[in-house]
């Protein structure tokens, strides 16, 4: 008799009052001893028996008194809590066991006559034909690398794809298609064999109906298959399909195939027909089209007015923003992050020093992609998309705007210098203050005149305005030009609008620029003179006054010359006084 044909044998039922013939096939050799249902794998039969026939927690731990409903839960408990090791490994399927006797029993039941179902690709043996076919489909199936961009159907040869295009999408009758698909989905341009398949697709994918509820959690699924897969992997912790490249395990073969295709082969077969962005999975393409091109944000936060295009974004938002959770801690610096991806980016950029993202304009490199994008937007495009609604100051970064509002308009200065107790709205400003004021460091030198600056921005501004003579920001009221946008904004506000928004709370004097108010309070009301001359120890309230003093007194420079008598002065004010008194009187 052919071995692939079904064999029958008598099996004693659990009830000894009668005997009946049970048909056992090579395809399903594992029989439930309670209801006689047949299974292809021993694990499936055990899972069935645990779930259907076991109403109580009959699996007790031999080390403690804890009981479990499922054997798999007991096994996981013993491994994690009691450190019970599985030292006995099956040499045919690599399944592990605690006891040697369990391994022997497994080999007798699972691998009997396995030589009859040997894979001709890798010579691995299987207990039945269906398992062998499943193995071949997962690991040895020829990938269909030719994708139809109209209906996303795949083909293993270019010739098959061309035949499909001519027959299905060009309507050529001389190239008959294998199956006529006359039912078209308008959203995806996907075709279906019959109307019921099309309606089912629309209900589940586009209308979001999920009729399959899980009784152990609140998760809903559009298809029963997805529900069963969720129960198996999440609630029963069964992940029987292992990747042979990275040891990651999966609950069903389709997820394993998807993982191998997208992760290890890097394939992205699904193309957006609007922006040509590619995706590894059709679901990701659908989400992209829904959120990016349709602008849909179907997930609203119940704590605030934020909306999100994807459910996981809402969950992350609630966890990080409203619960304040930072579950991912860097083991190098103890910095906490709300999302794992941000921790990985931090470790890569900060601790590994990697800068994988280069600007295509200036070749400057960055540790994170979003910083590179912001750099390109603000530096090369000159964009400042965030405007303060209180003073109209513009910023290239949203975070810079928020810090500005907090420090300038709300008066919050949470960072104090431990040397002079001056307070700052940002930690970076406090550190720069210490470096430039107390350490007197000027790390940024001009390569044209050797002048040094404490801030990189001041060096860039110096080069642009002094050496290049650029004044790119023109006033539309008086055509006066300025080297940087902040000076232009202050000019318009003070000169043309006559605004003086910064009032001294001690003498009610008003100023157009906040910096002038601070200088006034410091020098007039606090009588502070923080700038000392290193040659004569004379002190000044303003840095500019110190520089003028050093230039005129110690360097003897007289840069302001009268155009009528050629007399020279060290101060512009002295020149103006001279001209008024001497030359206007005659």
TrEMBL record:
Superkingdom of source: Eukaryota
InterPro entries xrefs: Znf_C2H2_sf, Znf_C2H2_type
Domain annotation C2H2-type: ranges: 30-58, 59-87, 88-116, 117-145, 146-174, 183-211, 241-269, 270-298, 299-327, 328-356, 357-385, 386-414, 415-443, 444-472, 473-501, 502-530, 531-559, 560-586
Coiled-coil region(s): none
Region called Disordered, residue ranges: 1-20
GO terms assigned for molecular function: protein-macromolecule adaptor activity; zinc ion binding
Keywords linked to the UniProt accession: Metal-binding, Nucleus, Repeat, Zinc, Zinc-finger
Gene3D superfamilies: Classic Zinc Finger (3.30.160.60)
Protein name in UniProt: C2H2-type domain-containing protein
């Amino acid at each position: 008799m052919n071995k692939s044909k079904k064999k029958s044998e008598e099996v004693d039922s659990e009830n000894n009052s009668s005997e009946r013939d049970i048909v056992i096939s090579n395809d399903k050799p594992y029989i439930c001893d309670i209801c006689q249902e047949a299974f292809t794998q021993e694990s499936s039969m055990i899972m069935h028996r645990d779930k259907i026939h076991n109403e109580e927690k009959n699996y007790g731990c031999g080390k403690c008194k804890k009981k479990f409903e499922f054997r798999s839960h007991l096994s996981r408990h013993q491994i994690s809590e009691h450190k019970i090791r599985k030292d006995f490994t099956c040499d045919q399927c690599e399944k592990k066991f605690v006891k040697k006797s369990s391994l022997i029993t497994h080999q007798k039941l699972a691998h009997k006559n396995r030589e009859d179902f040997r894979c001709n690709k890798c010579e691995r043996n299987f207990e039945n034909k269906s398992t062998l076919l499943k193995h071949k489909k997962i690991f040895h199936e020829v990938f269909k690398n030719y994708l139809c961009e109209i209906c996303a159907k795949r083909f293993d040869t270019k010739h098959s794809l061309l035949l499909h295009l001519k027959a299905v999408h060009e309507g050529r009758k001389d190239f008959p298609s294998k199956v006529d698909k006359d039912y078209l989905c308008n959203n995806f341009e996907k075709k279906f064999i019959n109307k019921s398949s099309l309606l089912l697709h629309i209900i589940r994918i586009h209308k979001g109906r999920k009729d399959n509820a899980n009784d152990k959690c609140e998760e809903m699924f559009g298809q029963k298959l997805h529900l069963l897969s969720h129960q198996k992997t999440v609630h029963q912790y069964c992940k029987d399909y292992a990747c042979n490249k990275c040891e990651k395990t999966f609950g069903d073969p389709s997820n394993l195939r998807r993982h191998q295709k997208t992760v290890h082969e890097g394939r992205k077969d699904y193309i957006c027909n609007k922006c040509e962005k590619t995706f590894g999975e059709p679901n990701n393409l659908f989400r992209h089209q829904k959120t990016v091109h349709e602008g849909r944000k179907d997930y609203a936060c119940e704590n605030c007015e934020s909306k999100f295009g994807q459910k996981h974004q809402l969950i992350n938002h609630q966890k990080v923003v409203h619960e304040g959770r930072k579950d991912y801690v860097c083991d190098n610096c103890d910095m906490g992050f709300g999302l794992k991806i941000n921790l990985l980016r931090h470790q890569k950029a900060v601790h590994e020093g990697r800068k994988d993202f280069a600007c295509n304009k200036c070749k400057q490199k960055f540790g994170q992609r979003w910083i590179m994008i912001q750099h390109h937007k603000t530096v090369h495009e000159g964009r400042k998309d965030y405007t303060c609604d209180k003073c109209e100051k513009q910023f290239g970064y949203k975070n810079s705007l928020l810090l500005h509002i907090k420090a300038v308009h709300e008066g919050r200065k949470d960072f104090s210098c431990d040397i002079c107790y001056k307070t700052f709205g940002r930690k970076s400003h406090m550190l720069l203050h210490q470096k430039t004021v107390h350490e007197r460091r000027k790390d940024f030198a001009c390569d044209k005149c050797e002048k040094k600056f404490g801030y990189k921005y001041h060096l860039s501004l110096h080069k642009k305005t002094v050496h290049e003579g650029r004044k790119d920001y023109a006033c539309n009221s008086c055509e006066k030009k300025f080297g940087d946008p902040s000076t232009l904004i202050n000019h318009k506000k003070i000169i043309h609008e006559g605004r003086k928004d910064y009032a001294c709370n001690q003498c009610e004097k008003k100023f157009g620029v906040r910096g002038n108010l601070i200088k006034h309070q410091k020098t007039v009301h606090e009588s502070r003179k923080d700038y000392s001359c290193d040659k004569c120890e004379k002190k000044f309230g303003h840095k500019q006054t110190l520089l003028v003093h050093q230039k005129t007194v110690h360097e003897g420079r007289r840069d302001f010359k009268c155009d009528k008598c050629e007399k020279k002065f060290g101060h512009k004010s002295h020149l103006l006084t001279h001209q008024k008194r001497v030359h206007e009187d005659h």
